[in-house]
């Protein structure tokens, strides 16, 4: 668990996955420079996984450690940015789940649910969703199939497309989060541009000044925005697909994910 604090005025903590490389590391550094305490869950250099998203036991242990620290400093932001893309769906996690699905969706679902009790009021959650508009029809039986045998359904592509409907799942289930949950699509932008945009989304309305660059569009966000897409260096707010907004899809996704990680619906 990597933690860095810059400055003493800040009273919020950022918990992040996917913050050790790429545009995630840019976002993490901008947050540190603004005075945030940033906890990045990642594999240790020694090979010991402080947060191994392929192992649900590791996710639970990481969440416990974060919760213990939150007694002194509230968690104001959660960035679920880690993800992977495999050319095949043959790999399985120690829990027997297809690896892409486990890392990109299920581990993040579990982490966020475990952190819910220790989030500050008004906490912001941002989920990176690179292909969120291409979600195929989701049925309860299909979610379970894609977790354990995705080749029988429609491959690992589904796992990369779950973040946006998950945003609506949180709102539909009446958690403490609701509208502060947003999905972010970095598209094919430069690493610095995507990092700046992610940091801006993570901090706006949470109390970190000076993170979002002028003209980025971050400070133009209204309460109804949920899906931010970065195109040609500028953040825009895109209307999600009708399927992504369906309450029945959100509830199925929530319920099936809960069953897979052993939590109540």
From TrEMBL:
Give UniProt keywords alphabetically.
Oxidoreductase
- What SUPFAM superfamilies does the database record attribute to this sequence? NAD(P)-binding Rossmann-fold domains (SSF51735)
Gene3D superfamilies given for it?
NAD(P)-binding Rossmann-like Domain (3.40.50.720)
Q: Which Pfam families match?
A: adh_short (PF00106)
Identify the domain of life: Bacteria
Q: Does the keyword Oxidoreductase apply?
A: yes
Q: Which GO terms describe its molecular function?
A: oxidoreductase activity
Question: What does the similarity note say?
Answer: Belongs to the short-chain dehydrogenases/reductases (SDR) family.
This protein is called what? Answer: Short-chain dehydrogenase
The record lists the organism as Knoellia subterranea KCTC 19937
């Amino acid at each position: 668990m990597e933690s860095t604090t810059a400055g003493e005025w800040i009273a919020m903590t950022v918990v992040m996955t996917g913050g050790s490389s790429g545009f995630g590391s840019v976002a993490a550094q901008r947050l540190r420079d603004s005075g945030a305490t940033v906890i990045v869950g990642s594999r240790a250099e020694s090979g010991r996984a402080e947060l191994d998203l392929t192992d649900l036991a590791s996710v639970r242990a990481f969440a416990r450690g974060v919760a213990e620290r939150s007694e002194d400093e509230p968690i104001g932001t959660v960035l679920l940015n880690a993800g992977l893309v495999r050319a095949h769906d043959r790999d399985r996690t120690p829990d027997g789940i297809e690896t892409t699905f486990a890392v990109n969706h299920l581990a993040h679902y579990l982490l966020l649910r475990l952190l819910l009790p220790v989030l500050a009021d008004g906490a912001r959650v941002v989920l990176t969703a690179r292909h969120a508009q291409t979600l195929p029809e989701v049925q309860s039986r299909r979610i379970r199939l894609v977790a354990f045998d995705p080749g029988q359904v429609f491959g690992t592509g589904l796992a990369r497309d779950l973040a946006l409907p998950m945003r609506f799942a949180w709102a539909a289930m009446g958690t403490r989060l609701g509208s502060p949950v947003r999905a972010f699509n970095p598209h094919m932008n430069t690493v610095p541009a995507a990092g700046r945009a992610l940091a801006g989304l993570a901090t706006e309305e949470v109390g970190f000044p000076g993170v979002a660059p002028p003209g980025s569009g971050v400070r133009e966000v209204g309460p109804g925005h949920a899906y931010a897409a970065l195109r040609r260096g500028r953040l825009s707010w895109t209307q999600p697909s009708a399927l992504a907004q369906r309450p029945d899809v959100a509830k199925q996704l929530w319920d099936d994910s809960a069953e897979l990680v052993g939590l109540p619906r």
